[in-house]
Specification:
Elements lengths: L18 H32 L7 H15 L1 H8 L1 H21 L3 H29 L5 H27 L5 H21 L14 H15 L7 H22 L17 H31 L3 H22 L6 H23 L5 H28 L6 H30 L7 H13 L2 H23 L1
Helix pairs in contact: 1-5, 1-6, 1-7, 1-10, 1-11, 2-5, 2-8, 2-14, 3-4, 4-5, 4-7, 5-14, 6-11, 6-13, 8-9, 9-14, 10-11, 10-12, 10-13, 10-14, 10-15, 10-16, 11-13, 12-13, 12-15, 12-16, 14-15
Length: 468
């Protein structure tokens, strides 16, 4: 370890009255984590129950579409209405989406509910990131982010179990009623835990132009998996990503911004950091979106078993993030780069062994991408926020959630398009699953390679700035 590196104690995270806020942030993250993991586990059952195999990927992509639009506006939402009111409203919006999904008689009503859940969940995710950026000092950020991501480890133990309990018994709507109850709990906790005296700014303008372009980008990405061939799907996804690049270009030219100035510039620390976060999420979503269907089809696994194998990605994320989160000095740059490289190696390994290797080996290689995220995510977030002026940390924190969710939406759409092209649009056949179990990971590898490049670039900029 470097002589200049020290460890930040865990007790500092909840010192100075920060415990209630930390608890609330964990509750909001739990809602998102449990939703993602249980939904991934039960979706094959939902598709069989109400039809719509061609729309299978939309259950995740629709949720993420709403999440991205909401998280992009969460910084402005906080400034206009205050953190407490915004959080309560977001949790209740999420609850309404859960109720609609639970009572859905067919796929389109169900997907509408998922979009509403995504909007509420996206606001909660963005508001949590805003709160972290505003109310925790920079030296604590890796500890806070790694502790918050440990909630995913808890969700791993409980989520697939609940998914199996209801999916294998054909009572999947109960899952969404449980989520609705949790949404009410988060709303009540926010009302109690957050202070009433907030500095809201009702007159603050909204970046409607950028939000509109974000909406177009998400729509293009979300319909990509319904394209009749892979080429059209690739074009739609590329256009959707291009829309987000356009947002970053517009953002630097307007008085009202969604992101900190320079976020689209790879020559800045936070610009390269945002790019790395985005690319890592695109690369790692295939396992979560299509993994359960491949495993259940090829190996005859139950929803519980496939859910646990897919969920090991989040478990490895937690297991690697917690031990390294207190490191300082040169270690953050090293771990960001190592994390991106580990994701690339994990995807290559999945492409080779996911279909027919012994299950213990499948579990191991599935966890590698999560380990890479665990090594890098908290330090990437710290680097981004640490590069910003104090008056930009609110939108900078919201930007972290927006970029992460946008990457997840793009990655979900890309994986769904590849799986549909492989044959999943016509049902979960063995040949389709064999093809999807390879190509979903192969197409993610170039994205991970680009993440490695941007991670190296960000580290170089950060080192140059520290030595300037």
């Amino acid at each position: 370890m470097d002589a200049t590196a020290t460890r930040v104690p865990w007790s500092d995270v909840i010192a100075e009255g920060r415990l209630p806020l930390f608890i609330l942030i964990c509750l909001a993250v739990w809602l998102n984590a449990a939703d993602t993991l249980i939904a991934a586990t039960i979706m094959p059952t939902v598709a069989r129950a109400i039809g719509g195999y061609a729309y299978f990927g939309w259950a995740t992509a629709g949720y993420l579409m709403g999440s991205v639009l909401a998280s992009a506006s969460s910084g402005v939402l906080t400034l206009r209405f205050g953190l407490r009111f915004a959080t309560v409203m977001s949790a209740l919006f999420y609850t309404a989406g859960c109720v609609l999904s639970a009572v859905a008689p067919e796929i389109f009503t169900f997907l509408t509910g998922r979009v509403l859940q995504g909007i509420g969940g996206g606001w909660l995710s963005g508001l949590a990131s805003v709160a972290i950026g505003l109310l925790f000092p920079n030296r604590l950020l890796p500890r806070v982010y790694s502790a918050v991501t440990s909630i995913w480890g808890i969700a791993i133990l409980i989520g697939p179990m609940l998914g199996e309990l209801f999916a294998d018994r054909g009572t999947w709507p109960v899952v969404f009623w449980l989520f609705a109850g949790q949404g009410v709990i988060v709303a009540a906790a926010a009302h109690v835990m957050l202070p009433a005296s907030e500095n809201s700014q009702p007159a603050r303008p909204v970046a409607w132009l950028q939000l509109g372009v974000v909406g177009i980008g998400i729509a293009l990405i979300s319909i990509a998996d319904l394209a009749s061939d892979f080429t059209r799907a690739a074009v739609l996804i590329s256009l959707g990503i291009g829309a987000f690049i356009l947002v970053l270009m517009l953002d630097d030219r307007t008085a009202v911004r969604l992101f900190p100035k320079g976020s689209g510039d790879m020559r800045t620390v936070h610009g390269a950091g945002y790019a790395t976060l985005f690319l890592l999420r695109v690369a790692t979503m295939g396992l979560l979106v299509e993994g359960p269907a491949v495993l259940q089809t090829l190996r005859g696994l139950s929803a519980l078993e496939s859910g646990y194998i897919v969920g090991v990605q989040s478990l490895f994320w937690t297991a690697t993030a917690l031990p390294v989160s207190g490191l300082t000095g040169e270690w953050p740059n090293r771990l960001i780069r190592l994390g991106a490289l580990t994701v690339l190696v994990g995807l290559a390994a999945c492409a080779l062994v996911f279909n027919d290797a012994p299950l213990p080996l499948v579990v191991l290689v599935s966890g590698l991408s999560g380990a890479g995220l665990g090594l890098s995510y908290a330090f990437l977030s710290q680097a981004i926020l640490g590069d910003l002026a104090a008056d930009e940390r609110a939108i900078g924190g919201a930007g972290i959630a927006t970029v992460r969710l946008t990457g997840a939406a793009a990655g979900s759409a890309m994986a769904a398009a590849i799986a549909n092209f492989a044959g999943f649009a016509d049902g979960f056949s063995i040949p389709a699953a064999q093809s999807a179990g390879v190509w979903v990971f192969v197409f993610a590898m170039p994205v991970a390679a680009l993440a490695c490049r941007s991670a190296w670039q960000m580290g170089r900029h950060r080192t140059d700035r520290q030595h300037a």
